[in-house]
User: Fold Trace amine associated receptor 5 from Anolis carolinensis.
Amino acid sequence: RKVEMKSSNWSQSMSSVAEVPTLDLLCFKINGSCYRSLYPFGIQFAIYLVCTLGVLLMVLGNLLVVISIFHFKVLHTPTNFLLLSLALADLLLGLTVLPFSAIRSVESCWYFGDDFCRLHTFLDTLFCLTSIFHLCFISIDRHCAICDPLLYPTKFTVRVACTYIAVGWGVPVVYTSVFLYSKIIEESLDHFLQDMPCIGSCQLLFNKLWGWINFPVFFLPCLIMIGLYVKIFIVANKQAKQISNMTRNTGNPQHQLGATKREKKAAKTLGIAVGIYLLCWLPFTIDTIVDSLLDFITPPVVFDVLIWFAYFNSACNPLIYVFSYHWFRRAVKLVLTRQIFSAQTCTIDLYQEE
Assistant:
């Protein structure tokens, strides 16, 4: 009898010991909880460090864009208003979304509740879509500027820029609100929805329809940008050849060289912009549609890498569209040296060569 009791107590103690590591692996100590990703401290610290540096780069770079365009009056142009709105979307993404996304990526758990999960998903989708729409509108602006330079000042006015900005924010707000906060959509499409894989994952709209709808929403601006930038590249090369022929006849090789370099630089900058956009967004977009066809087989680690690649595009925007301009370098210098606190600096002509 005593032997049986000892055997029973031993088995119970071994069972409780076996449950301890299992509970430690769960996000929450409840049934149906997600499992945590247990990385060694060094790897975990490295991931947090990379995420933190990426967020800082995104926030500081876009903050400099916002301050510069807002402060200096000479930068109050239709094109720069688009850049300002784009930088604001990327800045808000870095401030409100990415810190929580970093914790979820490292811990593979969502600790902030269901309501904030829905809000976080709303802001994430909103700012990413807004950024993509603005990149598309900037490509339209550049297309008008290079392909139709004489009519460009009358075509692309402040009013047109404000319309683009309103559409760039309004459409993502409506689109995201309908799918995240509308009960009608959720009830009418119930047969498309799949159950949440576990508690603590914060994977809203985990269904096949979401992948099919997101694909054209993200991919269509991509096709527009590629088409416009290809035409811009062709027109820029044609203009460079025309300038070369004109300067050869007038015998002004220095002017010819300067003009050719400017055209090549503009075409190269546009090519880099398209390349980085495709590099950042196409892997995530393609994985979304393929994953929906194959019942979501993408490992969480791979999905996190792809979504952070997409986030990285928002950190690249200031480098691609703004940091290559000499006027922005002058503006950053004035901001960092705190000369913007002087009332006279707001009227400085940043376009004038030093």
